[in-house]
Amino acid sequence: MINTAITTASGIPVADNQNSLTAGPRGPVLLQDFHLIEKLQHFNRERIPERVVHAKGSGAYGTFTVTHDIRRYTKAELFSAIGQKTDVFVRFSTVGGERGSADTERDPRGFAVRFYTAQGNWDLVGNNTPMFFIKDGIKFPDFVHTQKRCPQTNLKSPTMMFDFWSKAPESLHQVTMLFSDRGTPDGYRHMDGFGSHTFSLINDAGERVYVKWHLKSRQGIRNLSAAEATRIAGTDPDYAQRDLFGAIAAGNFPQWDVKLQVATAAELAAWEQRTGWNPFDLTKVWPHKDFPLIPVGVMELNRNPLNYHAEVEQAALSPANIVPGMGYSPDKMLQARLFAYHDAQLYRVGTNHQHLPVNAPRCPFHNQQRDGAMAIHNGGAAQNYDTVAAAGSAPQGMGHGEPALELTGAAGRYDGRGQEDDYTQAGNLFRLMSPQAQQNLFDNLAGPLSQVSSEIIARQLAQFDQADPAYGAGVRAALKARGVVL
Fold first, then answer.
1. 19, 44, 121, 127: which is the annotated catalytic residue?
2. Which class for 65: exposed (0-12), middle (13-18), buried (19 or more C-beta within 10 A)?
3. pLDDT in tens, 70-82
4. Are the CB atoms for 463 and 421 separated by under 8 Å?
5. Mean pLDDT of all residues in 44-67
6. Among 115, 197, 238, 304, which residue's CB has the most CB atoms within a 10 Å radius?
7. Which domains, ranges and CATH numbers included, belong to the chain?
8. Is 127 a catalytic residue?
9. pLDDT tier at 398 (50, 70, 90 boundaries)?
10. pLDDT at 2
11. Averaged pLDDT score across all residues of the chain
């Protein structure tokens, strides 16, 4: 008989496979959580040689130009003056499909931007949605496995997907976005981008504010109907790649307005007290009426890569790459990604992937790292160690000179899921849709839901009902139209 109890790869029983080990309920995540580390490390090594997620992508170069002064929030050099330009590289992608999959599949889209600043590379690694399916990185391998192929049939499985989602109310907000019209964007030029996570900015006085980054398409939002997306998948599976490359080659350079939402820790605490929403929860958004968008600059893509493999496939971005004047937040998903993305690139591209031209900073850099595969810049005869400051040092807070982040609470695995509101924001998103967009949502959901068990359907419908009774009723009607007996 197979033992179904979860253990580590060494056979050690896992006490909790739902929650990361954190310092207090909000974190940050502790490095001693070996189960989380082992789980993410193994997950990053499951595919050779393509990315585990975001395997199929398109890339282009361009510039970011500052249009508004945000120096009261950050000392980051790239925002020093109006009109200042910074070179960028952007990689767009689908998430769940393989390198040969279709560009028009119903899937979130990756939207990753590298800014080659004078202080090093800043990687804003996000999606075309402002929220995500889960709130704790320990569930990321589990979630992505449901979006990949069934280990028995090697087919995509609606049962796997909705079995996971129907038991995870936290996913409903993103599921609603995924099965809306925005789940099949019309190429990469006609969609917005989001940093998604909460990050922070630090000014010259050492004051921290928390921020969310937004990139708003100047081309306007355009989406494909479900039928059109399916048709294009069969006739031109590289549709988004062809559209982006062709537009830039023709001089039709796409642009995005770069904006941000800003809040102090005190403002977020007051907002949480009023709404009940954790501002660092990736399954939630900050409503614009509470935290208005502030303009920052404009990003333009104006140059295609010359070698796809060297410049797009080997591009290795990580949200851990921030520059002085920036910081992180206690977002549990962000904390996991800070480790997992760089680790994935070490495995997928190589130990010295930062030496490759697309990944190398365009400012002077120096460290004591030596040797390993692809050691293009290996330091020569320079000293490969740093001595101990025996008389003591004067550290400037955390990384990059940011102020220390106060932590509270005992280290433990904290699960607040049963007490958290996972329905209101999903309902708000549903109520923002036009009647036709709502009907499209019902029909898009009814397709895969009609292929799963009645038990899973009932669980998922119960989630729709809690978001908005009309949401559940609409999906029920669409299921019945497909002959599903409820």
1. 127
2. middle
3. 999 999 999 999 9
4. no
5. 90
6. 197
7. 21-134+181-364+410-421 (2.40.180.10)
8. yes
9. low
10. 54
11. 93
Cis peptide before 49 (omega within 30 of 0): yes
- Structure letter (DSSP) for residue 345: H
> Mind listing the pLDDT tens digit for each residue in 315-372?
999 999 999 999 999 999 999 999 999 999 999 998 888 989 999 999 888 777 888 8
Q: DSSP letter string over 164-230?
A: HHHT-GGGHHHHHHHTSGGGSBSTTTTS-EE--S-EEEE-TT--EEEEEEEEEETT---B--HHHHH
CB of 108 closer than 8 Å to CB of 56: no
pTM of the model: 0.92
End-to-end CA distance of the chain: 36
How confident is the model over 243-278, as pLDDT tens digits? 999 999 999 999 999 999 999 999 999 999 999 999
Report d(CA 178, CA 406) in Å as an integer. 36
**Single-letter residue type at 343:** D
Q: Is 61 annotated as a binding residue?
A: no
- Do residues 196 and 284 make contact, with C-beta atoms less than 8 angstroms apart? no
List Cβ neighbours of 469 (8 Å cut-off, separation of 6 or more): none
Rg (CA), the chain: 23
Give the tokens for residue 342.
């760089």
The whole-angstrom distance between residue 219's C-alpha and the CA centroid of its chain comes to 22
Q: How far apart are CA 180 and CA 174, in angstroms?
A: 10
Give the mean model confidence (pLDDT) for residues 457-462. 98
54 catalytic per annotation: yes
Which residue among 19, 35, 54, 223 is the active-site one? Answer: 54
- CA separation for the pair 276, 317 (Å, rounded): 33
Q: What one-letter code names the amino acid at 90?
A: V
